[in-house]
Amino acid sequence: MASGHVSMKYGFQGPNHAAVTACATGAHSIGDAVRMIQFGDADVMVAGGTESSIDALSIAGFCRSRALTTKYNSSPQEASRPFDSGRDGFVIGEGCGVLVLEEFNHAKNRGAKVYAEVRGYGMSGDAHHITQPPNDGRGAILAMTHALRQSGLHPSEVDYINAHATSTPLGDVIEANAIKTIFSGHANSSALAFSSTKGAIGHLLGAAGAVEAIFSVLAIRHGIAPLTLNLTKPDPVFADGFMPLTASKEMPIRVAMSNSFGFGGTNASLLFASVGSDR
């Protein structure tokens, strides 16, 4: 229904489509819209995600699943701490993120300001459990692998990853190991910057993938990889050069990946690049 209201308000008559894939919704919406442009169904798509779940029913449900943090109730500003040894669950956030996606020549001909291009979109299913990812991270690995393969880029060409990491004890470690598996030596060399912006905004659920895609695009645009807020004692899974950012880092970012993994074992990875970044 949300996409229908946007269509009616602005007179959009192209594909009218809504993804419903839990915490991967925003990323799937963007990736699906890109494919509609690639298939010739539209020249321009407006895609993203929105969420408003800070209510009694939603909080009760997530509490029953023991997904939410409780350790930091007396200091809530410290509660969302992805990749930190003291994490104990996520903080529900609310928000919205929307991207205007456009076929490149169409955008160029009208003089549009192009922030980045979508180079890859990978999807996968865990086929494991409704809330817990498999310990081997196979779903996350598949999503990232498919995005890289579609882009034609080598893992060593990725400069920044906006991780899904929600601040849960299990999920953060599994994603970290999946990143190490895919990026191997590049991940351990300190050349690959990665962080979770959920430390600052919480987990926006269905909107997370869209807002974090925007973080990734702006990281490319401004040459700044954002920090992971509240990361004071990194999980033991991190060592040597493989370490999430604890401070924002100014650096050239030509390629950035954004990961979104949802309940139901649904996974999506988006790969963005600066315009003309073929390397």
From TrEMBL:
Q: Identify the domain of life.
A: Eukaryota
The record ties this protein, via SUPFAM superfamilies, to: Thiolase-like
InterPro entries named among the record's database cross-references:
Beta-ketoacyl_synthase, Ketoacyl_synth_AS, Ketoacyl_synth_C, Ketoacyl_synth_N, PKS_Beta-ketoAc_synthase_dom, Thiolase-like
Its EC top class is transferase
Pfam family for this entry, one: Ketoacyl-synt_C
Q: Which GO terms describe its cellular component?
A: mitochondrion
- MF terms (GO), sorted A to Z: 3-oxoacyl-[acyl-carrier-protein] synthase activity
What EC designation does it have?
Answer: 2.3.1.41
Q: Report the Gene3D superfamilies cross-referenced here.
A: 3.40.47.10
- UniProt domain Ketosynthase family 3 (KS3): residue ranges: 1-274
- Asked whether the keyword Transferase is assigned, the reply is yes
What SMART domains does the record point to? PKS_KS
Keyword entries, A-Z: Transferase
Is the Transferase keyword given for this protein? Answer: yes
Q: What are the GO BP annotations of this UniProt entry?
A: fatty acid biosynthetic process
**Sequence similarity:** Belongs to the thiolase-like superfamily. Beta-ketoacyl-ACP synthases family.
Q: Which PANTHER family match?
A: 3-OXOACYL-[ACYL-CARRIER-PROTEIN] SYNTHASE, MITOCHONDRIAL, POLYKETIDE SYNTHASE-RELATED
Name this protein carries in UniProt: beta-ketoacyl-[acyl-carrier-protein] synthase I
Taxonomy-wise, where does this protein's organism fall, top ranks first? Eukaryota, Viridiplantae, Streptophyta, Embryophyta, Tracheophyta
